[in-house]
UniProtKB/TrEMBL annotation:
This is Leucine-rich repeat and WD repeat-containing protein 1. GO terms for biological process: chromatin organization; DNA replication; establishment of protein localization to chromatin. GO terms for molecular function: chromatin binding. Residues 216-241, 260-292 are annotated as: Disordered. Residues 262-279 have a biased composition (Basic residues). Belongs to the LRWD1 family. Pfam families: LRR_LRWD1, WD_LRWD1.
Length: 683
């Protein structure tokens, strides 16, 4: 019979308690406890336990499912522990002591420093700097060595057309070889090195060959549904809080589908491509009747949960093209983009080569739901005090945490706990490369200085501003004419502008202007959900309302200039035109623009892409006398969603959540509600 009962737990609580769920501190020391006495079913009721003392007992290991999601401090001194890897189930652990456990070594110290991302104190010592080195520099070196070992000795051993048996044989041989031959650091840490090398190698194989990861990687922890406040994501995407993080190269993991926009033989090649051009015409304004030839190149399923090929439920939300390092990205956006796009959805962020359809890299956080990504370019100090520019990718979502990824190094070097509720969108300042805006479901927009990491990836982030909104901010757009002074946000209940100039002393700021738009009754209202927002040029704003499903083009300067200086005020948007679009009331189908080409893009509830060439109109609108067009501007062209035949799956409803063009309008990346990223190329 177990020594631990409900009555004992209530008695040993500090202070004593009448209910298990209210216990925050628990002392179970000196009870001669063995591992079998720790009943997971009983401990799972300690949902709010933060401090646990298990010292002076007889524990040789931890059960794998104690389910203590809020545990911050753990004392295991004077036991018989032989292994520490089960401690990974306590991802929020900040202080850990396990002195006088004779079987534990320095290798175990390094294991817990890697597994517990929030750990600050180990056996009474501050390990912050060393742990950062273990998680970042050490992992980076080992990943590089593992990849090199594969490329040198094993890549050519796998036939281009290989069987499952051949893959398993290569996997077994590679894992054995890499653990034997990859050496790094002092010999006293050889056990830790072999442990990490095996982990990295398994992750590498999972991404490269589509093999399943070792399920011992990291636990997925269910959230307390009774206590967790409901925070509706763009499609009520539910997720658990997890700690698994993987960044790896991927050869060619993608959805194999058959594209049949017209009569076509079925293909069973790698990521599906179509060489037949798909043209769809729509009515066009005079002078804008360019019939764009575009071909669907690839349909990729690279965001699947658990790498499942049966996942057609993960929604994809955002994408952004990587800037070129040597092109003066902030000076000339027209030539600043590569053909690599970062996309996010579900638990992963992917980097995709649009031309080849290759998934170059993939970053995962188990049970996260990523909603937004953004690029910046930082000049970092490398060895010998040399400076070099690197692209940094910020990714954020349901957990309210911003992940900072050094893409060239294949590494997530840090995170910013920006909000306690989900982050809907992020964007970097075009003039200050370390300034990042985060818009959250807590109805706040925060401006952060993310700092510049040193050669050991140490960095310091600081909060500069908090902008208060009256509803959830969904989209952000810095005003091109004054990006250091004004920020626009499309929110659940309106469109607002803030003064973000940093010479003002006030850190928390209310909005400065609320914009009115026409309502269905012919009047003007500020109360409408704005789920699409972007600038078409320095002055013309494109905004979309999910109800009544309309897209307006309006002048920022002529609207904002009507406001009295320095005061909060409601102003009417000076409407220039309205775009004809779908009558759907589906929310969160956002729009995008290609300023260099004068295009607006927006997807619909049927998988189609509505394209508007407005280059002629923008010239007319640039005049102060430009007037509102009385008739809706129809799309220049509509690209229809092609018929996809997926074995065992009927894709009945395809929502286009986002359409992402590169700055030169060479590629269109279409992000959908059915876990498919479609890449179109303009001919």
């Amino acid at each position: 019979m177990s020594k631990i009962t409900t009555e004992l737990l209530l008695e040993r609580a500090v202070p004593k308690s009448t209910r298990l769920r209210k216990i925050e501190t628990l002392n179970l020391s000196k009870l001669q406890l063995k591992t079998g006495d720790l009943d997971p079913r009983l401990f799972s009721r300690l949902r709010h336990l933060q401090k646990l003392d298990l010292s002076d007992n007889l524990l040789d290991k931890f059960p794998n499912s104690l389910n203590l999601p809020d545990l911050r401090v753990l004392n295991c001194n004077n036991n018989k522990l032989e292994d520490v890897t089960a401690l990974k189930q306590f991802p929020l652990l900040e202080e850990l002591t396990y002195e006088n456990n004779m079987f534990l070594t320095l290798n175990d110290d390094y294991k817990v420093m890697f597994l517990l991302q929030n750990l600050r104190l180990l056996n009474g010592k501050d390990i912050t700097k060393l742990a950062n080195h273990v998680r970042n520099v050490n992992s980076l070196k080992l990943t590089s060595k593992v990849t090199a070992h594969w490329e040198k000795f094993f890549r050519d051993q796998l036939p281009e057309k290989h069987t499952a048996e051949q893959v398993k044989a290569i996997q077994k041989k590679f894992l054995k070889s890499v653990q034997t031959n990859v050496v790094y650091g002092p010999s006293s840490l050889s056990e830790f090195t072999r442990w990490r090398v095996k982990m990295i190698a398994e992750e590498f194989l999972a991404c490269s060959l589509g093999l399943e990861l070792n399920t011992n990687a990291e636990p997925e922890e269910k959230m307390d549904e009774d206590k967790e406040e409901s925070t509706k994501s763009p499609s009520e995407a539910a997720g658990d809080v997890g700690q698994v993080e993987t960044l790896c190269r991927s050869w060619q993991y993608a959805l194999q589908v058959t594209v049949t926009p017209s009569k076509r033989k079925r293909k069973n090649s790698k990521p599906s491509s179509s060489k037949k051009r798909s043209k769809s015409q729509a009515n066009a304004e005079e002078g804008d009747a360019e019939d764009v030839s575009a071909e669907p190149l690839h349909f990729l399923q690279c965001h699947s949960k658990g790498n499942s090929r049966e996942d057609f439920k993960t929604e994809l939300w955002a994408g952004v093209f990587e800037p070129l390092l040597d092109s003066g990205a902030r000076k000339d956006p027209i030539v600043s983009s590569s053909r690599t796009v970062a996309t996010c959805g579900g638990e992963s962020v992917c980097l995709i080569d649009c031309e080849t359809g290759t998934v170059l890299k993939k970053y995962k956080v188990a049970a996260e739901v990523f909603f937004s990504v953004a690029w910046t370019t930082l000049t970092m100090t490398i060895s010998n005090s040399q400076k070099k520019s690197h692209n940094i990718l910020a990714a954020a979502g349901r957990r309210g945490i911003v992940k900072l990824i050094h893409v060239a190094a294949d590494f997530c070097y840090g995170e910013i706990k920006a909000h306690k509720k989900p982050i809907a969108t992020v964007c970097f300042s075009p003039t200050r490369e370390t300034h990042l805006f985060t818009a959250s479901y807590d109805k706040r927009i925060a401006l952060w200085d993310i700092g510049i990491p040193d050669c050991d990836y140490n960095f310091k982030a600081s909060q500069l501003l908090v902008l208060e909104a009256i509803s959830i901010p969904l989209r952000l757009a810095l005003v091109p004419m004054s990006p250091e002074q004004y920020l626009l946000a499309g929110c659940e209940d309106g469109c607002f502008a803030w003064n973000i100039k940093l010479d003002k002393k006030q850190k928390n700021r209310p909005f400065e202007a609320a914009f009115q738009f026409p309502d269905e009754d012919g009047g003007m209202t500020t109360s409408h959900s704005v789920d699409g927002l972007a600038f078409l040029n320095d002055d013309v704003v494109v905004s979309k309302s999910s109800k009544p499903g309309c897209i307006y083009l309006w002048s920022w300067s002529r609207s904002f200039d009507t406001k009295e200086k320095g005061c909060q005020q409601t102003v009417s948007a000076v409407i220039l035109a309205e775009l004809e679009w779908s009558t759907t009331d589906h929310p969160y189908l956002t729009l995008s623009t290609c300023p260099a080409k004068g295009y607006v893009f927006c997807g619909d509830e049927k998988g189609s892409i509505w394209m508007y060439n407005l280059s002629n109109h923008t010239r007319a609108w640039s005049s102060a006398k430009g007037k509102h067009s009385d008739r809706c501007i129809p799309p220049t062209q509509i690209l229809k969603w092609p018929e996809l035949r997926v074995p065992g799956e009927q894709l009945s409803e395809v929502l286009v959540n986002n359409v992402v063009p590169d700055p030169t309008f060479t590629y269109l990346v279409v992000l959908t509600s059915v876990n498919i990223a479609a890449i179109w190329k303009k001919s």
